Amino acid sequence: MKLKKILAALAASAALVCSTAIGSFAANDGEAAYCFDNSNKLTDWQTYGSAEDVSFKFTSTSAKSKNGNGSLLVSENFTENIENGFGGAYIDAETLNLDNFGGCTITMSVLLAEGAEDHCENLALYSDGIIWLNQPAVGLSTETWTDVSLTIPEDADNNMIGFTIPTFAPYSGDIAYIDDLTITFADGTSVANLGDYQQKTLTGENTVSTGKNIALTILLVVLILAIVGGIGLIISAIMKKFA
Length: 243
What we know:
Blueprint: H1 2-24, E1 46-49, E2 57-61, E3 71-78, E4 87-92, E5 105-112, E6 124-128, E7 133-136, E8 146-151, E9 160-164, E10 171-184, H2 210-242
Antiparallel strand pairs: 1-4, 2-3, 3-10, 4-9, 5-8, 5-10, 6-7, 6-9
């Protein structure tokens, strides 16, 4: 009886590990309102404030992406301090045929560009209209994408959402990549992609060679055999113990 319980526990543990692994790979590729995989919808975005003073720019690039084939690359280029700087890029609710963004949760994913770790102190997700709301992008990394989320009260007649200029200290170069901006309504539904999603293009740089594939397959088989053998030894030892 004890042996059966042990085997059942092992099976349950294996099932849990498998389900966790499968869940961890789940991705909503192509479901964001703005995927930024190409420049098809960049004309929806407008800039304001000190954007011109800091040469604030954003372009679609395939250099980095969380999902799909690309992301939005944000850069600045200026040599003197900007006093009382403000501004950023935004879209208007009317562009999406919405009355306002009240009750919506806005999310974007951010990845820092190399060398920009100390030049993103003002980067935030924001909404404006009847009230100003913003969620700073903190804990950013050049290695891992960070999700930034902002929920707008249902009674807020806010007609703008966007992201702010990252820095007002002299800087020249790329600052951050932004991907998968999603707009989720209070009922859990969301704005479907507006036409800028593109599946990731595989190139020689991001594909694995045939030789590496074979080596990885052999390594995987060896690991599986080792695991199976180890489990077999454990079960054999348990059976001898209870024999």
